[in-house]
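Re: that backbone. Tokens:
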């Protein structure tokens, strides 16, 4: 049977070759895509990461108890760390033996590690003494189990464009839609870097605690996150970033500045150098649940750090439709057990007038959402994608949610196979409560007719099969031929 199926696939391939040679590149891609043999996944870099399934078993009326549920320990990685320590740190003895069971003495949620007695352990079973012995900028790749990114020598900041994320799904219902994070793309820079950093710093100057806050007990997690981000930038973009560890100076070649890392709070360093948002959640040993304890967020719509800081996970997501019924238990349990070496990624999307980045409650831009402006032009309509990652920090065991807002003119979707059809189906037939929360109504009178026209053109040009049944693409969160378009537009 296997041999027969293989022969049939080969015959189909040979027959399609004659047709393929007479087609354009995009049309040929669609034809080959229909052959089952060629639709199998391959390990190439363009292959979307595998999805992650959340546990959906509900405990019923019995409230879940996570007081004795901990993430996997990473203390065994200490055995590989001493060789990478600075000379002054090599004299310190690091024990790789695990504490009896899970940590018996937990660091209180609101307590800095300096104020804790000994012994005291983080949820990933590192002791305070071990963390102090590791010092500044330990080998986080070894500690976390997530490799540093590969260098990207072709990267040119002035030309760089974000990858064209299109996280559309059909059938459209409320799930986290998680996939494994790609280590090379944890932090992604593009040609708006300089302007976006300036914009974010301006928000901080104007709004202060509405965009940046940190509560007591988050000191270690903030420092750890900052150091991991700097290690990533220096490894991924060595032509632009470097670190002088001896003097604790971070050099940014794009902004042409040097920063003394001990001169300001770690979150302010991230604000000044990384155009992404970070929300740090931490485990409270009293109940085992996770709380939002620190963050720098400059691209929220309708909320801000000040309205969410200190809240538990389900309280943060209270406005989201179906979260309590379908996702609360799964997410609480996922956070309780999430390993350090398995970060995830996902995307959310919306449609906006212009490019609103930060819109606190009461912002004048909210008025756009209250009506359908008859004067609205297509050139004003943008797809906004918030590309998000979630990862556990190895030492503090904090879980960091980071995201960045990416804007694309709706007109860009015209030559992206299947994308207009999927987006149109969601806008027309998506669940009412979800679409009301997504709040796209104010632009649909302009966007929907345009997507209908794009859909017709793609069918006529052979980019989409006649009668194609709308569904989530195998290439999601991208589309067939996305890499060719992306490389062509940015020139590398």
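Recovered sequence:
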């Amino acid at each position: 049977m296997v041999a027969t199926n293989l022969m049939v696939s080969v015959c189909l391939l040979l027959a399609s070759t004659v047709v393929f040679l007479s087609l354009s590149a995009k049309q040929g891609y669609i034809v080959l895509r229909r052959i089952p043999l060629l639709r199998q996944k391959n390990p190439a870099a363009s292959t979307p990461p595998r999805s992650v399934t959340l546990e959906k078993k509900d405990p019923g009326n019995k409230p879940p108890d996570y007081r004795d549920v901990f993430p996997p320990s990473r203390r065994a990685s200490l055995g590989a760390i001493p060789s990478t320590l600075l000379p002054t740190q090599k004299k310190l003895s690091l024990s790789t033996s695990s504490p009896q069971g899970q940590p018996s003495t937990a660091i209180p949620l609101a307590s800095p590690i300096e104020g804790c007695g000994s012994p005291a352990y983080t949820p990933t079973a590192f002791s305070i003494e071990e963390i102090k012995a590791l010092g500044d900028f330990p080998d986080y790749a070894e500690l976390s189990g997530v490799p540093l990114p590969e260098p990207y020598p072709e990267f040119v900041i002035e030309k760089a464009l974000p990858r064209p994320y299109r996280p559309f799904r059909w059938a459209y219902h409320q799930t986290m839609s998680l996939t494994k994070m790609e280590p090379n793309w944890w932090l992604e820079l593009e040609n708006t870097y300089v302007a976006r950093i300036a914009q974010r710093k301006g928000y901080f100057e104007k709004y202060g605690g509405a965009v940046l806050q940190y509560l007591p007990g988050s000191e270690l997690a903030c420092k750890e996150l900052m150091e991991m981000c700097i290690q990533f930038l220096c490894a991924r973009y060595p032509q632009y970033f470097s670190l002088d560890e001896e003097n604790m100076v971070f050099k940014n070649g794009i902004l042409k500045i040097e920063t003394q890392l001990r001169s300001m709070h770690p979150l302010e360093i991230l604000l000044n150098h990384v155009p992404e948002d970070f929300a740090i959640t931490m485990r409270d040993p009293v109940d085992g649940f996770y709380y939002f304890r620190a963050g720098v967020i400059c691209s929220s719509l309708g909320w801000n750090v000040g309205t969410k800081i200190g809240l538990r996970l389900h309280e943060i997501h209270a406005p989201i439709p179906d979260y309590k019924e379908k996702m609360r238990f799964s997410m609480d349990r996922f956070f309780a057990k999430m390993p350090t070496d398995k970060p995830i990624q996902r995307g959310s999307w919306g449609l906006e007038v212009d490019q609103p980045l930060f819109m606190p409650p009461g912002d004048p831009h909210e008025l756009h959402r209250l009506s359908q402006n008859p004067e609205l032009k297509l050139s004003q309509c943008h797809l906004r994608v918030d590309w998000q990652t979630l990862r556990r920090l190895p030492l503090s065991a904090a879980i960091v949610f980071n995201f960045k807002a990416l804007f694309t003119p709706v007109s860009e979707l015209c030559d992206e196979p299947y994308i207009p059809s999927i987006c149109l189906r969601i806008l027309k037939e998506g669940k009412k409560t979800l679409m009301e929360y997504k709040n796209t109504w104010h632009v649909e009178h302009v966007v929907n007719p345009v997507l209908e026209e794009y859909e017709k053109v793609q069918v006529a040009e052979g980019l989409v099969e006649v009668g194609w049944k709308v569904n989530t693409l195998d290439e999601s969160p991208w589309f067939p031929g996305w890499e060719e378009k992306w490389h062509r537009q940015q020139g590398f």
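The two ends are 45 Å apart (CA to CA). Residues 441-460 form the longest helix (20 residues).
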